[in-house]
Amino acid sequence: MRTNVKKRIKKTPGQAVVFAIAFVIIAFFSLSYVYTLAWGFIAGLNTNDGLILKPFDFPEKLLFVNYVNIFSEFVIGGVNFGMMTLNSLWLTLGGAFLEVACATGLGYVTSKYRFRGSKLIHFVALLIMMIPIYGNMPARYRLVYQLGINDSVAYLITYTSGIGFNYLMAYSFFKSVSWTYAEAGFIDGANDFVVFFRIMLPQAMGPISALFVIQCIGIWNDYQNPLLYLRNMPTLATGLYLFGNEANAAGHLELLMAGTMVSIIPILVLYFIFNKALLNETVAGGIKG
Amino acid sequence: MIEGQIAEAGNKRLFLKKKKQNFIRSLFIFCMIVLPLLNFLVFYLYVNFNSFFMAFQMQTGKGEMRWTLDNFRFFFDEFRYADSVLPESIANTMITFAVNLFTALVTSFLISYFLYKKMRLSWLFKILLFLPAIISPVVLTRLFSSVIGVRGPVMDILHILFGMEIPSGGWLGDDRYAMMAIMFYCVWTGVAGNMILFNGALGRIPEEVIEAAKLDGVNWYKELLIIILPLIWPTMTTLIIMATVNMFGASGPVLLLTGGENGTNTISYQIFIKVYNTKGAVNPQNEAAAWGMIFSVICIPIVFTLRYFLNKHFSEIEY
């Protein structure tokens, strides 16, 4: 396997200047994210008055209790912060599992089996990504409410599309895996289910895990869909948005900031654990046009 | 005779075994495609067909549904009203599209290139630059609006350095600066948006090609423009097409930053708000469906022409 590690090569003066400028710009952006996040965590330790009058001064007293109070005082429509976290959890884990599982299964059969419609499925999956459709939100909204799957765990069925980026990744991964492994399994008497779950799927666990993490991040952060379809079951993202609209007037900016920062902890933990997998497994080789 | 019967029994067993295998295979394929297929039929085909019909429907005062072209007429009438949000929405959407395209392609590519060349601390920058892509826009906008707010450090710095005035409502609360602030947010959070994809594409470039170019005396910017860019062009064209597909859907987090106030409306925000705020009222939804259809009809030929052009004039390099 080719390694990406390269030795630093002596640069010409012109190149050194350009790289120095690039370094400053990249460092500026990187530090701006760190500064903003650090300020967010400190703001969560401030008082409401402190956040209104001098939000960027270091708080006179660090109120760690704000991070505890959010679990009792951060309430939207009768739903507290704990319940919002729970809503985010089931939606994220369930949605990501269904989305990735469906994409994996579909990608596997269309790449490895020739059956009536397999090429059509692949073609349609690609075509859908190419067709710009903007106005279907009202029709989707109406359908979800007609089916009665809004404000319900049943809303998870909308995550079974199995197409899009996840499908393409699964398809191209399985396309590159040799069918010889499967044939060996069939000779030993295994059926298609056994071959898939015991032989092929374990080989794909790296990319699939990365897709799962990406999907988790996407659903955890999504605020538009839960705003529309889970109005009475706010997730952390929608809860923060709705609480933010009234926090200023209600005098609870400190709770808003504390809640805001707590909501990103799971994602940050997930990211720092899986960042290598995310950067390497998902796009080993980049994408082809 | 007996041998024949044995052979026949063997054949039958083989036939039954084969039949069972075929059944299991069909069952397996069915299990793998059934959910995505149902989802596609219900949440894609049905939804889009229904969206098409909704665009031609309107509810009367008596609650009856009638077929009409009024939703389209209302759309074009919007251009005649001075207080209409449509022209503003289209202009803002195009600005957002252009800014997003620039950051997604140019800045993302350049940053990926410098990190690929193993700049100092590139391992750390890779981790930090990806942060905006994983943190919720709800959180980022909350922090961003504070940082650029009236009492935020950005305003102070600009005031001290350039004497820039501080609007009483902050940039986001001022018609002159609100859209600019949203674009600033798009650049700030999107500057490394496609870094992962570019890293993957750059990582695929054979080192021998770069080494050979160096031996031939190619300097760094020629290496970038003549060697690297053509090699990662497939990634670039895919990103261009994907961005164009979302041309009229381009929108900063308008809902989170301004709620469409101060001249920051976009098309996708308007469609969203027609669904979200009206909570099931039929006519605004049908109007939104008509808006969506019009913009889809405009965008589809653009996407396919662009794809045709890119495929025809930029051939892929095999390596």
Mean pLDDT of chain A: 88
Largest interface: A-B, 99 and 120 residues
Shape of chain A: globular
Percent of residues in helices of chain A comes to 55-70%
Oligomer: heterodimer
What is the CATH superfamily of chain A?
A: MetI-like
Biggest sheet character of chain B: 2 strands, antiparallel
**What's the level 1 CATH class of the largest domain in chain B?**
Mainly Alpha
Structural class by helix and strand composition of chain A = mainly alpha
What is the straight-line distance between the termini of chain B?
63 Å
* Helical/strand content category of chain B: mainly alpha
Distance between the termini of chain A: 24 Å
Keywords:
heterodimer; A: 289 residues; mainly alpha; MetI-like fold; two-stranded antiparallel ribbon; 13 helices; disordered C terminus; B: 319 residues; 2 domains; two-stranded antiparallel sheet; flat
Describe this structure in words.
The complex is a heterodimer of chains A (289) and B (319). Chain A has helices at residues 13-43, 48-53, 65-73, 81-112, 118-130, 137-147, 165-176, 180-187, 192-203, 205-221, 224-229, 236-250, 253-281; strands at 75-76, 79-80. By secondary structure, chain A is mostly helical. Chain A has a two-stranded antiparallel sheet. Chain A has 13 helices and two strands; from the N terminus they run H-H-H-E-E-H-H-H-H-H-H-H-H-H-H. Mean pLDDT of chain A is 88; it is low at 1-6 and 284-289. Chain A has one domain: Orthogonal Bundle (MetI-like fold), CATH 1.10.3720. Chain B folds into two domains: 2-54; 73-313, Orthogonal Bundle (MetI-like fold). Chain B is built from 15 helices and two strands. In chain B, helix 2 (70-77) packs across helix 15 and helix 3 (86-116) packs parallel to helix 9. The chains are: A mainly alpha (289), B mainly alpha (319). Chains A and B meet through helix 1, helix 4, helix 5, helix 6 and helix 9 of A and helix 1, helix 3, helix 4, helix 5 and helix 6 of B.
